[in-house]
């Protein structure tokens, strides 16, 4: 019996898919790369932007014939998109090939839903409107032996006015510190050297708990674990990034010096309309503080262009912020109205053409800066974790720097995979660095 999982969206979804894989394997299923040969196909969906949704409908639609040829095959659709009535109704009514619909709050129920279908129930919809506390700990099938994701906080309470996540992932729920430390110790005993802590806003960690600890306290505890070589985390919200966090990162060698700090816009007026609760000056102040304490920090960000009411002058403030900060890298998005969010109801929506013009201008500027910033690394020796064969060419390995930059190195020996080694950078583009292995 084989399973195939198709995942869209962010690391939370990637990690949920690892848990879905863990559950399916404990039911006796094995993973297959070929969806046509699978007995069960699971979709883990995202609806952060319209195009994420369109992809899901397209792909589920394309399975109609396969399901007709093999009626025993089970198709299950879960994830963020299923927390909204519209997409659920559409899938149920127009896509009879779908057997199971489940949500983000009850992924642990998937095995029993599969059994219901196997025991004759035709189609099952089980979506919980509200979260019922933390999702129980589940076995997860990791992408490799040496890296792991660890959830520290589920949900989001920030309600940025454009964003659907709080509506589909529930309110903020932190896991107890002891549970996280225990999980990480077990992972390290199992060979993991590199962990990424996950939360929509990791800086809110602990605020909802009775105990008196916060995110920097958690980091300090984890940094003490012997054998844990790298601790990364995402995402930090600029409104809550504390001096204590910067100091904790600066003090500990095994905490990554990468700050992914989504700014969204360079205009304080737009930031207010986005309900981000910080302004341009506060953000620039944070960047200075980070660089004063950690001169080699890698700083990356997210931007949304074409938010309702964004004028040319607001957009120019975004461009000028990019020039001021000189980010290492940025993810840039055209604003996509999401049903049920306040921004989608605003009258002053920007045309698609204008959004894409701004997007292109922003990408051009940032790519040039990323290129220049990366040029400065040429000739330098940096530590990188070798992750595996390069997707493009098996003669090369792909590796990641402390700041999460992709570094391509010659594939010398498979023994290097899963180890941190030193690479000397000899070529650099906007997105990728190329290097040679030094004395390994
Ligand atoms: N929790 C994280 C990010 C979650 S979503 C944070 O607060 O930063 C990842 C990114 O998607 C966001 O940072 C934002 O830039 C983008 N995004 C979210 N909603 C969007 C929308 N409606 N349209 C376009 N981009 C959006
Ligand atoms: Fe969305 Fe804002 Fe929460 Fe991030 S912090 S998930 S952008 S509401
Ligand atoms: Fe998408 Fe859900 Fe993540 S909407 S971005 S998969 S939290």
UniProtKB/TrEMBL annotation:
RNA-binding: is it a keyword of this entry? no
Task: Establish whether keyword Membrane is in the entry.
Answer: no
Q: Which UniProt keywords apply?
A: 4Fe-4S, Cytoplasm, Iron, Iron-sulfur, Metal-binding, S-adenosyl-L-methionine, Transferase, tRNA processing
Q: Which GO terms describe its cellular component?
A: cytosol
**Entry binding sites for [4Fe-4S] cluster 2:** 156, 160, 163
Q: Which CDD domains match?
A: Radical_SAM
Q: Which residues form the TRAM domain?
A: 375-439
Which Pfam families would you find in this protein's record? Radical_SAM, TRAM, UPF0004
GO molecular function list: 4 iron, 4 sulfur cluster binding; metal ion binding; tRNA-2-methylthio-N(6)-dimethylallyladenosine(37) synthase activity
Query: Where do the MTTase N-terminal domain residues begin and end?
Result: 1-119
- Its EC top class is transferase
Where [4Fe-4S] cluster 1 binds, per the record, is at: 10, 46, 80
User: Which part of the chain is the Radical SAM core domain?
Assistant: 142-372
Question: What does the note accompanying the cofactor annotation read?
Answer: Binds 2 [4Fe-4S] clusters. One cluster is coordinated with 3 cysteines and an exchangeable S-adenosyl-L-methionine.
> Can you state which reaction this protein catalyses?
N(6)-dimethylallyladenosine(37) in tRNA + (sulfur carrier)-SH + AH2 + 2 S-adenosyl-L-methionine = 2-methylsulfanyl-N(6)-dimethylallyladenosine(37) in tRNA + (sulfur carrier)-H + 5'-deoxyadenosine + L-methionine + A + S-adenosyl-L-homocysteine + 2 H(+)
List required co-factors.
[4Fe-4S] cluster
Q: What Enzyme Commission number(s) apply to this enzyme?
A: 2.8.4.3
Q: Where does this polypeptide localize?
A: Cytoplasm
Q: Which Gene3D superfamilies match?
A: Methylthiotransferase, N-terminal domain, tm_1862 like domain
The entry sums up its family as follows: Belongs to the methylthiotransferase family. MiaB subfamily.
What does this protein's UniProt record list under function? Catalyzes the methylthiolation of N6-(dimethylallyl)adenosine (i(6)A), leading to the formation of 2-methylthio-N6-(dimethylallyl)adenosine (ms(2)i(6)A) at position 37 in tRNAs that read codons beginning with uridine.
State whether it acts alone or in a complex, and with which partners, per the record.
Monomer.
Protein name in the entry: tRNA-2-methylthio-N(6)-dimethylallyladenosine synthase
Which organism does this sequence originate in?
Halonatronomonas betaini
What is the gene called?
miaB
């Amino acid at each position: 019996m084989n399973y195939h999982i198709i995942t869209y969206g962010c690391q939370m979804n990637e990690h949920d898919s690892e848990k879905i894989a863990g559950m399916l394997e404990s039911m006796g299923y094995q993973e297959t790369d070929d969806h046509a040969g699978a007995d069960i196909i699971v979709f883990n969906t995202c609806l952060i932007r319209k195009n994420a949704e369109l992809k899901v409908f397209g792909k589920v639609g394309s399975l109609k014939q396969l399901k007709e040829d093999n009626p025993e095959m089970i198709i299950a659709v879960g994830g963020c998109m299923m927390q909204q009535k519209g997409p659920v109704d559409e899938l149920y009514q127009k896509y009879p090939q779908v057997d199971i619909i489940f949500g983000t709050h009850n992924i642990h129920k998937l095995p029993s839903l599969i059994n219901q279908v196997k025991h004759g129930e035709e189609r099952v919809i089980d979506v919980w409107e509200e979260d019922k506390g933390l999702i129980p700990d589940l076995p997860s099938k990791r992408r490799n032996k040496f890296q792991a994701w660890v959830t520290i906080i589920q949900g989001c309470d920030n309600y940025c006015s454009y964003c659907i996540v709080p509506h589909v992932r529930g309110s903020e729920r932190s896991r107890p510190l002891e549970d996280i430390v225990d999980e990480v110790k077990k992972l390290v005993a199992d060979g993991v050297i590199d962990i990424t802590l996950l939360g929509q806003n990791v800086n809110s960690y602990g605020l909802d708990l009775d105990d008196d600890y916060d995110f920097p306290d958690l980091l300090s505890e984890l940094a003490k674990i012997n054998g844990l070589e790298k601790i990364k985390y995402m995402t930090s919200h600029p409104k809550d990034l504390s001096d204590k966090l910067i100091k904790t990162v600066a003090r500990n060698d095994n905490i990554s010096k990468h700050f992914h700090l989504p700014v969204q816009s360079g205009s304080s007026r737009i930031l207010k309309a986005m309900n981000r609760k910080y302004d341009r000056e506060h953000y620039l102040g944070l960047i200075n503080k980070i660089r004063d304490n950690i001169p080699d920090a890698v700083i990356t960000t997210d931007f949304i262009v074409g938010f309702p009411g964004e004028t040319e002058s607001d957009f120019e403030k975004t461009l000028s912020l990019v020039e001021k900060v000189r980010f290492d890298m940025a993810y840039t998005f055209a604003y996509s109205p999401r049903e049920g969010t306040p921004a989608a109801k605003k009258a002053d929506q920007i045309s698609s053409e204008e959004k894409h013009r701004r997007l292109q201008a922003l990408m051009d500027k940032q790519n040039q800066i990323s290129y220049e910033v990366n040029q400065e690394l040429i000739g330098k020796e940096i530590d990188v974790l070798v992750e595996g064969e390069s997707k493009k060419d098996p003669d090369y390995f792909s590796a990641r720097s402390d700041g999460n930059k992709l570094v391509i190195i010659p594939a010398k020996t498979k023994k290097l995979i899963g180890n941190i080694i030193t690479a000397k950078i000899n070529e650099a583009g906007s997105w990728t660095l190329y290097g040679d292995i030094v004395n390994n």
